[in-house]
Structures are given as structure tokens and as C-alpha cells.
Amino acid sequence: MDNSVSNAAEAGLDRNSVDNKKSLDKAESTVVVRRVPPLLQDLSDEEFAALEKRLVRKIDMRLLPPLIIIYIMNYLDRNAIGSARLGGMEADLGLVGNQYQTCVSILFVGYILMQVPSNLFLNKIGRPRIYLPTAMAVWGVLCACSGATKDFKGLLVTRFFLGFVEAAYYPDTLRTGAVATLSVWYARRELGVRTGIFYCGSMLSGAFSGLITAGINSGLNGARGLLAWRWIFIIEGSLTVFLALLAILVLPDFPANTAWLTEEERQMAMYRLEKDAAGEEDWVSSSTQPIVEGFKLLLRDRNNWILVVIVYGAASSISINAFFPTVVASFGKGNTETLLLTTPPYLFACIVCAAVSFSADRMNERFWHTVGPLATALVGFVVACAATGIGPRYFGAMIMLPGIYTGFNMSMVWTSNTVCRPPSKRAAAIAFNNAVSTFCSIYGSYLYPTGAGPRYVLAFSFYAGMALMAIVACVVLRIVLTRANHCQEQLEREAEAAGREAPPNSGFRYVV
């Protein structure tokens, strides 16, 4: 087969090996028996499948909802500055020239500095239940403080530290802490749709942001002597702190140290991920996670350098988040109507991202599910840049956002699938690729100089070029991984024909 071996098929093979182990030669069955946890060895195939299904459903209910809610607040807080701009922030703080753009970009400097250390530290301690909500509470306070700033310097400082702390959860160019957490709970065939559902949080935040800001602008502008833009920061930051306290009560840690798993479920959770990676264990304890070694392994992996190009190209247009209200404002509508018009593209992006993620997992395919959205985004950029009428430009906006988010999501899923073991290497890959791709968000805000509207030729032309670069890199990665799978198949066939021991990573296939 040219894709990843099905986990169910692998589990079935091993279940048969265990059930029939008494009739097998001891030398041939030792490895298989040793790898099957004690509480799973006496289960029938039906019992084994039922336990796994029940476990996945339990994980879905306990892990996904809190992660999605935290992610919604993550994006609301970081992108509140875009809505605050329409609420009079620039005039009230006396921002001139490129000072607004600088306040947008400085957040990503903090991201870059903290992304890799934060994700590796999380992988080291294995306590996302404590670490992620704590970071969330801190960035909520920082967001609220943004509403109390008096000048450019104050806003600049709060934005820098906001990015520094938010890097613990999910950088603008893909979920470090959150994706690292998802990837130690789900098998590769399950990760795409879960990551897509999780990633919908960023799109829902974009939709909610317009609605929330429209309400604040119309109902709280001037309340208690504060302009609407200050209330945007204060309300969203305060809500973030409240939800962070609730998240501590429901978020799980890793399979090896989560209290709400039975011992049988714990062994199943760890065993199925071990099988998914051709026998290598996932997170077991902090003492087994060599942080520096994982990063060194990553730097020597040529596949990940191709993935860096894909992720960077896909993430280059993410900086549109802070300027999307400004882009829509160029249609010439009022503030409230402009904010409401930002909602449909984000909702459509949410639907498309979830659908593509589900299809990618169901078909166990990554290339076309990554290239398709990137190509759609490219078309959206060209239309928005070339058209002059409101209708065509809004159509471009409607298709560019689904393409941006879905293409980026799938590029990070492909990263998790390709650089999957050891866990410290996978954590380094997710963090490093995010950190590198975040550089584009630092200079991305300067692609929208004053007077560039309504077509924003510079920004959309640049985004189109980056999307094309990512598509080319996808083609290269497909060729490399397909050849690697073919070579692995050849080695296994030759070993079987010669009666030799199976080669390393026997049964493993890259998802292409």
C-alpha cells in the first residue's frame, strides 16, 4: 500500500497474533506478545475494537471542546486590535504613520521567541491541563490591559507580551501546544479531522469577533467614559480569564498521566499510538523526553525542511486577520455593517475546513487536500486584487479565507503525520515550523500601507506568490514520501523473501 497502514488493520493483525500465540513458535511471537499490554491480551477482536471506539469517543468529549473554546478566545484576543481600529483606537491613542502596523506585528516577535521553548517544555512536563489554562489566564489579563493603554508605547508593550504568552497555546501559524496535545491522543488517521475541528475555533472567533464588536460599538461606546475600542479589549480579556479557570477542571493531560482514564483505557491509548508509529512509544514520562535531542533530530530531517516551505507559504496570508475588517471597510459601508460583513467568510471557512479535514482522514490522503485549498486561496487573492466592483471583491474574500485556513491546517496535519516520532521530535517540528512561518506575520502588517485600499495589490499579490510556492513544495514532498514508501516496501519484500528479520519501521508508511 502507498499510504499509512491502517491502524485498524495493524490492530487486527496483532490481535490475531496474540489470540494464536500459543500455537506460534516462541521465537517468532516474542516481539508481538511483548508489545501488547497485559490488560489487552485476552480481549477478543470485537472487545478490542469496542474498547478503542469507546476510548476515542471519550477523548473527543473531554479534549476537543475545551481546546476549541480556548482557541476561540486565543484568536479573539490577538485579533481584537483589528476591530478596535474601527472603534476609534488610532485617533484616541494618537497613532500615526506605521505605528498601528507595528503594534500588529510586534505580537509575532513574542510568538517566535517563545514558540519552540514553550512547546518543548510542555512536552517535557506532560501537564497541558495546568500549563495551557495558566497561559490563557495570563494572556487574558494582558488583553484587558490593552484597553487601558494611553499611548503607542503602552499598546506596543502589551501586544509584545500577549504574543509571548499566547505562543504557549497555538501560534498564528498553527497550534503548538494544542496540536502537540492532540497528536499524543489520536492516531494519524484520526488526527486530520480532529485538528480541522479544532482549527475551526480560529474561524469561529473571526465570525464572533464581528458580531461582538458590532454589539459593543452600538451599545457601549462612551459607557463609563470609555470608547468602544477599550471595551473590546476589556470584555474579551475578562472572559478569557474566566474560561481559563474552568478549563483547568476539564482539560486532560497525556494518556500516561490522565486521571479520568481507567488502567485498561490507558494501556489502549498508549498501545494504539505505539502501533501507529511502527512500535515506538509515545509520551511516557518527563524523563524520557530529551528536548535537545528531539530538536537535533528534526534539523537533520530533510522531509521537515520541505514541510517548512509548505507551512510558510500557507501561513503567509494569515496576517490578513488583523486587517480583514479594514479590507471589508474599503467597500464603503458603515462600521456596524462592515463588522457584520466579516462574519460570513469566517463561517464558510469553518464549514470548508471541517469538511476537508473529515475527507482527508476518511481517504487517508494529504496532498490533494492541501493543494486544493491553497489553489482556491490563490484564486481568491487574484480576484480580490484585480476586481474593482464590490461583488467580485467580496466573492474573492469569501473563497480566500476558506483556502487560507484549510490549506494551513492541512499543512500542519501533514507535519504531524510525517514527523511523528519520537514525541520530542514531533513537538519540535510543530513548534519550529510554526515559529519559522510566523516571520511572515511580522512583516505582513506592512503589506497594508495607508492608502493601499481598496484593492490592496501589494498584499494580495504577495499572498498569491506564497500560495504558489507552497503548492510546488507539496508536489516535491509527495514525490519524496512516495519514493520513501516504495523503498520501505522493497526492503520488507526482500527481507521476507530471504527469510531475514523485518527491517526497521516495518509496516510504517508515510501519509501522502
From TrEMBL:
Keywords annotated in UniProt: Membrane, Transmembrane, Transmembrane helix, Transport
The Major facilitator superfamily (MFS) profile domain, residue ranges: 63-485
Recorded superkingdom: Eukaryota
Xref: InterPro entries: MFS, MFS_dom, MFS_trans_sf
Transmembrane segments: 59-76, 99-118, 196-216, 228-251, 305-324, 344-360, 367-389, 395-415, 427-448, 460-481
Membrane topology, record value: Multi-pass membrane protein
A Pfam family that the UniProt record links to this protein: MFS_1
Localization per Swiss-Prot or TrEMBL: Membrane
Database matches in PANTHER family: AGL026WP, PERMEASE-RELATED
Protein name in UniProt: Major facilitator superfamily (MFS) profile domain-containing protein
Organism: Sporothrix curviconia
Origin organism lineage: Eukaryota, Fungi, Dikarya, Ascomycota, Pezizomycotina
